[in-house]
Amino acid sequence: MIRVFWALLFVLTLCSGAAWAAAQTAERIAVVDVERVFRESTPGRAGEAHLGQAREILQKGMDDLIALYKGKEDTDEAKAAMRDVQGALERQFAAERHAMQQVLTASLAGVIKAWFTANAQSSAIHAVAPASVFFAYSPALDITDAIIREMNSEKPTFPALPTVTVKANPQASGTDKAKGKGGTAAPAKQPAKPKAQ
Question: Which of 99, 106, 182, 194 gives 20 to 30 Å between its CA and that of 92?
Fold first, then answer.
């Protein structure tokens, strides 16, 4: 019985030590609210403005198509054209959003790496993680403000805005085409691979 007691005590001591060590390690993980960085930083706001411009261009393409079929909206030709073009424009907008987010993510990754290199040793930080992976964390671990300040000096380059041309195409049963860059018919061409500076 005594042996069992000491064995249990030994196991509990090991578990407590492991829990304490894990807690100490967790305290050295800095946290960044990525959504807040994208929402509040200068590059993040620039990205949203860029996306807004893309949305306006694509919406104008749809408006042009509607105008093209004004008075014939209920025909099979018009319905097919609007369905096809709307799908192409929605896919293009999703591609534009993805490209914009890639640019911001690349820029943010560079900023975080630079911050970590400059501050890890003095702050006893072992890693940096996005806030979204934690259920809760101490505000003392949150470096979002510092990252936003650093991000504000970044000048990321977003892909060129899309171009859309809508015109009747009698060779395709009246189905209109939404053309992206290079005259590619619907679905619109994917944006160029983004670059972050």
Answer: 106
Tell me what pLDDT residue 170 has: 53
Q: Which of 126, 107, 197 is nearest to 157 (CA)?
A: 197
- Of 7-11, 112-116, 172-176, 187-191, where does the model show the most confidence? 112-116
> Could you read off the pLDDT of 166-183 as tens digits, one per residue?
776 554 443 334 443 333
Supply the DSSP symbol for 1.
Answer: -
Cis amide leading into 162 (omega within 30): no
> For 95-147, what is the HEC assignment?
HHHHHHHHHHHHHHHHHHHHHHHHHHHHHCCCEEEEHHHCCCCCHHHECHHHH
For residue 169, the model assigns a pLDDT of 57
Phi, psi for 101 (deg, rounded to 5): -65, -35
Q: Where are the domains of the chain?
A: 28-183
